[in-house]
From TrEMBL:
<dbReference type="Pfam" id="PF03862">
    <property type="entry name" value="SpoVAC_SpoVAEB"/>
</dbReference>
<keyword id="KW-1133">Transmembrane helix</keyword>
<feature type="transmembrane region" description="Helical">
    <location>
        <begin position="120"/>
        <end position="142"/>
    </location>
</feature>
<dbReference type="InterPro" id="IPR014203">
    <property type="entry name" value="Spore_V_AC"/>
</dbReference>
<protein>
    <submittedName>
        <fullName>Stage V sporulation protein AC</fullName>
    </submittedName>
</protein>
<keyword id="KW-0472">Membrane</keyword>
<feature type="transmembrane region" description="Helical">
    <location>
        <begin position="21"/>
        <end position="40"/>
    </location>
</feature>
<feature type="transmembrane region" description="Helical">
    <location>
        <begin position="52"/>
        <end position="75"/>
    </location>
</feature>
<dbReference type="InterPro" id="IPR005562">
    <property type="entry name" value="SpoVA"/>
</dbReference>
<feature type="transmembrane region" description="Helical">
    <location>
        <begin position="82"/>
        <end position="100"/>
    </location>
</feature>
<keyword id="KW-0812">Transmembrane</keyword>
Length: 146
């Protein structure tokens, strides 16, 4: 019975269009990266920022744009079409922070937005920061041994 049901489900389930999804993810992710490069170049040219300062300002700007578009409901529409192309860049990180906060804003700023702000991105931050500390510690020990 299980095999028949699985076969039936496989027959009626829509088949994903992998090639189309890959191409859309590549194009949208590329467009986001090109926008980031343009912003970076503008910061370096017009504000006379060095590479490090320009990179930081560009990251902050892209995070703001991703959060702003999420607040307007536009980033979710982009994500439905682009998939990983919109999730992988830093704008996807902004979206993962803002989306849960927007969902619970009716419950108030402290218990709604504040409590749910890092629901999705929190584990990423914890493990990212923790692993960077661990890698830094290992690097420090290795350089002491040399």
């Amino acid at each position: 019975m299980d095999k028949d049901y699985k076969k039936y489900v496989d027959e009626i389930s829509p088949k994903p269009k992998y090639l189309k999804n890959y191409i859309l993810a590549f194009i949208v992710g590329g467009i986001i990266c090109v926008i980031g490069e343009v912003i970076n170049d503008l910061y370096m040219k017009f504000l006379q920022l060095d590479k490090m300062a320009s990179a930081g300002a560009t990251s902050i700007t892209l995070i703001f744009i991703g959060a702003f578009l999420t607040g307007l409901g536009v980033y979710d529409l982009i994500g439905k079409r682009a998939g990983a192309g919109s999730i992988i860049p830093i704008t996807g990180f902004a979206n993962s922070i803002v989306s849960p906060a927007m969902e619970y804003k009716r419950e108030g700023y402290v218990l709604g937005v504040g409590a749910n702000l890092f629901k999705i991105a929190g584990p990423v931050l914890v493990y990212g920061i923790g692993s960077s500390i661990l890698c830094g510690f290992v690097y420090y020990i290795v350089t002491l041994i040399k």
